[in-house]
Design goal:
single chain, alpha/beta, TIM Barrel, 8 strands, 15% strand, globular
Length: 232
């Protein structure tokens, strides 16, 4: 996490890029590199349509980009960007990712930590136990969900949708009051869903630890977005 305490969490969507599959993958990897250079704390590889083999391939490529960006930033205080794989604990372990993001209704964090430990997936630093080394975020859609996520051992909760989404107006937004209540819990809560540079201040003022987004990062200059969010 950056020194100002704002957690920035980029959720990928390669289908948002133009071109054929290989062009989209290349563009996504470029965007991941851009996010690393901007000091984004977490990247969730959320390419749910890919089979395990293709997802693992993309995850390995993303991990390589992150390592390359980290090695070129020697001397900087910002830690390496954390790579999480959406839902697939097996792929995350096979690709040597840092952890997983769990959608609502998926397995529980303790199940992930048990699998991580049994697989002998040691942390890169070698100073944590296998089960403790894995990083886990989880999707939440209510204050109760956040409470349960904390009790289950998640590291981060992504609470959504905070604001109405233009492409899904039928889904009821939670609002910043619910976000503020959830943020008083035991784990950091990130605001997700309809968040823009214009309304991000409402989320952070309510107590959100940071911002999670797809389009806010992917469709804009990430360095500019990161500077704007960290200046709030």
């Amino acid at each position: 996490m950056m020194d100002d305490g704002r957690v920035l969490y980029y959720i990928t969507d390669r289908k948002g890029f133009a071109g054929d599959e290989e062009a989209r993958r290349r563009r996504l990897l470029d965007k991941i590199g851009e996010a690393c250079r901007a000091g984004v704390d977490y990247i969730q590889l959320r390419e749910k349509d890919l089979c395990a083999r293709e997802l693992e391939r993309l995850a390995r490529e993303a991990g390589q980009v992150i390592r390359e960006q980290s090695s070129s930033a020697v001397g900087k205080r910002a830690p390496r960007t954390v790579l999480l794989i959406n839902s697939r604990t097996d792929v995350a372990m096979a690709a040597s990712a840092d952890g997983v993001h769990l959608p609502a209704g998926d397995v529980w964090p303790e199940d992930v930590r048990k699998a991580w430990s049994l697989a002998g997936h040691a942390s890169a630093e070698g100073c944590e136990t296998w089960a403790e080394s894995v990083r886990i975020s989880i999707s939440c859609h209510s204050v109760q969900d956040v409470t349960q996520a904390a009790a289950a051992g998640a590291d981060l909760a992504l609470l959504a949708p905070i604001f109405e989404k233009k492409d899904a107006p039928e889904i009821r937004s939670l609002g910043v009051d619910a976000l503020g209540e959830a943020a008083r819990g035991k784990i950091p809560v990130l605001a997700l869903g309809g968040v823009s540079l214009q309304n991000a201040k409402l989320c952070l003022s309510a107590g959100a630890a940071g911002i999670a987004a797809i389009r806010l990062f992917q469709e804009n200059d990430i360095a500019a977005v990161a500077r704007a969010l960290r200046s709030i």
